[in-house]
């Protein structure tokens, strides 16, 4: 007992595997989507009449904002809860992605897709990873391995799907 409270060890399973599955999906939605943004480069160049370096800023801003704002996700998760941080991040990144489909200039795309979506991803990514550690002690490496594999598996699945969707509906669809 510590200060009259009993310490409970992580359960190493049960509900923790649901958390691992959810973290897997968060890494698919954040890291895999971020990697698939480069598929849109040719479409952005053609639509906005921009060169490669101008369109490359979009991917750079998403990735940079996600990683630089990761401590913000941690702060929100500690202040309220990881659930609130992930839900708010999902809402923010969804708004950023939706707003991106209506942009009329590359600069607006920098903000909507680069900054707004990147901030939403940051609010999702860090708390989701932190939650896995709360539910595992002995099988922590396995749990983290499964959760983080969402990045690679998601990229493997999303890349051809995104290419097909671009061909069917254009980049705005």
Automatic annotation (TrEMBL):
Reaction catalysis annotation: creatine(in) = creatine(out); guanidinoacetate(in) = guanidinoacetate(out)
Gene Ontology CC: one annotated term: basolateral plasma membrane
GO terms under biological process: creatine transmembrane transport
Domain Major facilitator superfamily (MFS) profile: 1-173
Transmembrane segments: 15-34, 84-102, 108-130, 142-166
MF terms in GO: transmembrane transporter activity
InterPro entries in UniProt: MFS, MFS_dom, MFS_trans_sf, Proton-linked_MCT
Alphabetized SUPFAM superfamilies for the sequence: MFS general substrate transporter (SSF103473)
Keyword hit for Transcription: no
Highest taxon above the source species: Eukaryota
Swiss-Prot/TrEMBL keywords: Cell membrane, Membrane, Transmembrane, Transmembrane helix
Membrane topology designation: Multi-pass membrane protein
Compartments it resides in: Basolateral cell membrane
Role noted for this protein: Functions as a transporter for creatine and as well for its precursor guanidinoacetate. Transport of creatine and GAA is independent of resting membrane potential and extracellular Na(+), Cl(-), or pH. Contributes to the process of creatine biosynthesis and distribution.
Family under the similarity heading: Belongs to the major facilitator superfamily. Monocarboxylate porter (TC 2.A.1.13) family.
Protein name: Monocarboxylate transporter 12-B-like protein
Lineage: Eukaryota, Metazoa, Chordata, Craniata, Vertebrata
């Amino acid at each position: 007992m510590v200060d009259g409270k009993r310490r409970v060890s992580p359960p190493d399973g049960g509900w923790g595997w649901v958390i691992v599955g959810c973290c897997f999906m968060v890494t698919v939605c954040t890291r895999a989507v971020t990697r698939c943004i480069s598929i849109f480069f040719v479409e952005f160049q053609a639509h906005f009449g921009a060169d490669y370096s101008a369109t490359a800023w979009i991917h750079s801003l998403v990735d940079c904002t996600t990683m630089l704002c990761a401590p913000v996700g941690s702060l929100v998760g500690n202040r309220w809860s990881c659930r609130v941080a992930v839900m708010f991040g999902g809402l923010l990144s969804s708004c950023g992605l939706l707003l991106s489909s209506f942009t009329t200039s590359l600069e607006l795309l920098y903000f909507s897709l680069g900054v707004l979506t990147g901030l939403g991803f940051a609010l999702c990514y860090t708390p989701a990873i932190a939650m896995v550690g709360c539910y595992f002690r002995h099988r922590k490496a396995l749990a983290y391995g499964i959760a983080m594999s969402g990045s690679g598996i998601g990229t493997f699945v999303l890349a051809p799907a995104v290419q097909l969707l671009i061909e069917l509906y254009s980049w705005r669809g």
